[in-house]
């Protein structure tokens, strides 16, 4: 992928440090140092991951819905030792790097991943996710995440608070965490991930509502509208609209056209992270990609975590999207997985494309057929 689109039988020339010098069509393959059968693409940007949960691989039942998934998270979060957790997240990051991931928007709830991220060649912006359903807990939660952000920065990481989702936060905490995150210029937010979430906030009922009530947690206000609308309304209480900064709406399985328009009106730089394998894993649903394309939303691709996915493989995510939305060409899928993710992270000058002067990794995707991914397609860093 170049700034002007794909090149058939093309080449990428780089400096020793990976800086792209030029691209173009191969005029005489015999004169080239190496020739590959497949597609050469820039390094991927994993737009949504929870790498610290990598120790949970293979532990979860599929198809439980969000309420059942949350119950499993709570039951399994501390079932392995610190050394086991550290080994799993290091292996996950090494695997992503080998498969060609240059950068990641990663969610952290603690400091477990900081040292590994700081020493790793894969660039990470860390979103320090906060929870707290009781309004009176808001000051203590914000004090704790502010301290955690300071620790992350002591490792040299780009990190700031971010809200989790409507169903795990009081309105007060949602506003405070959003304001803190936007001061960094970046925000990541789980939005409309499941019908259970939407039913909870629209009507005050359903499995998610029952789950929160059974746990004796306060629930968000019942608005009669979507959870995305609720989020945008909370943002308007703390910052002027349209919101400056890059805001990533993660999942959006229940977004409709009105929601897409509302997001684009309220946010100057809205992005949507698609995590299709995770969505199928948890509740066998997918986001309305056709509508999102039609409405002109900027789409990115993420893997989510190994608690809700069998692997952290960007090509598997793209293949999943291709199989369910065959009208989307591979060129566009790669745009989502490379350049758009880099744009969200504010790294488009150096990552996400083979523009001269960029330092995106060179990645080979093999086993293509007629310009499309196959079930055997894999990626590796060259």
Would you kindly provide a written description of the structure presented here, covering whatever features stand out?
By secondary structure, this protein is an alpha/beta fold. It has one domain: TIM Barrel. Helices cover 37% and strands 20% of the residues. The chain is built from 13 helices and 13 strands. The protein has helices at 65-76, 82-98, 114-119, 138-154, 171-183, 195-203, 207-214, 227-236, 257-266, 276-283, 289-294, 314-324, 330-344; strands at 10-14, 20-25, 39-42, 44-49, 101-108, 123-130, 158-163, 186-191, 243-251, 267-274, 298-301, 362-365, 379-381. Strand 6 (123-130), helix 4 (138-154) and strand 7 (158-163) form a beta-alpha-beta unit. Helix 4 (138-154) packs parallel to helix 5. The radius of gyration is 21 Å and the shape is globular. The mean pLDDT is 95.
Spell out the helices and strands N to C: EEEEHHEHEHEHEHHHEHEHHEHHEE
Radius of gyration: 21 Å
State the strand order across the main sheet. 4-5-6-7
- The CATH architecture classification is Alpha-Beta Barrel
CATH class wording: Alpha Beta
Q: Give the full name of the CATH homologous superfamily.
A: Metal-dependent hydrolases
Under CATH, the topology can be stated as TIM Barrel
Number of domains: 1
Task: Please give the count of helices.
Answer: 13
Number of strands: 13
Alpha-beta content class: alpha/beta
Low-confidence stretches: none
Q: Give the % helix.
A: 25-40%
Question: What integer is the average pLDDT?
Answer: 95
Q: In one word, what is the shape?
A: globular
């Amino acid at each position: 992928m170049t700034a002007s689109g794909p090149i058939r039988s093309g080449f990428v020339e780089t400096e020793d440090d990976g800086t792209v010098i030029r691209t173009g069509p191969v005029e005489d393959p015999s004169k080239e140092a190496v020739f590959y059968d497949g597609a050469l693409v820039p390094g991927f940007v994993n737009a949504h991951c929870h790498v610290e949960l990598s120790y949970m691989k293979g532990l979860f039942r599929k198809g439980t819905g969000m309420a059942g998934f949350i119950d499993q998270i709570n039951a399994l979060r501390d079932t392995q030792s610190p050394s086991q957790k550290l080994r799993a997240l290091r292996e996950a990051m090494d695997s992503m790097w080998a498969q060609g991931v240059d950068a990641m928007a990663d969610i952290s709830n603690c400091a477990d991943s900081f040292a590994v991220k700081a020493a790793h060649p894969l660039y990470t912006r860390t979103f320090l996710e906060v929870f707290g359903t009781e309004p009176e807990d808001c000051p203590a939660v914000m004090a704790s995440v502010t301290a955690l952000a300071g620790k992350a920065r002591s490792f040299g990481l780009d990190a700031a608070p971010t809200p989790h989702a409507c169903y795990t936060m009081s309105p007060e905490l949602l506003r405070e965490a959003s304001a803190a995150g936007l001061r960094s210029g970046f925000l990541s937010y789980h939005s409309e991930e499941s019908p259970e979430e939407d039913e909870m906030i629209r009507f005050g009922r359903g499995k998610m509502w029952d789950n929160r009530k059974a746990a004796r947690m306060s629930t968000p206000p019942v608005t009669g509208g979507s959870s995305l609308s609720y989020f945008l309304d909370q943002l308007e209480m703390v910052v002027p609209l349209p919101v400056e900064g890059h805001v990533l709406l993660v999942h959006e399985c229940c977004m409709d056209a009105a929601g897409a328009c509302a997001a684009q009106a309220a946010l100057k730089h809205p992005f949507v992270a698609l995590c299709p394998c995770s969505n199928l894993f948890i509740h066998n649903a997918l986001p309305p990609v056709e509508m999102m394309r039609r409405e002109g939303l900027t789409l990115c691709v993420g893997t989510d975590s190994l608690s809700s996915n069998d692997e952290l493989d960007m090509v598997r995510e793209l293949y999943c999207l291709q199989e369910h939305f065959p009208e989307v060409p591979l060129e566009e899928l790669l745009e989502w997985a490379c350049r758009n993710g880099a744009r969200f992270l504010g790294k488009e000058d150096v990552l996400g494309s083979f523009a001269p002067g960029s330092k995106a990794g060179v990645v080979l995707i093999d086993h293509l057929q007629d310009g499309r991914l196959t079930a055997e397609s894999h990626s590796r860093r060259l």
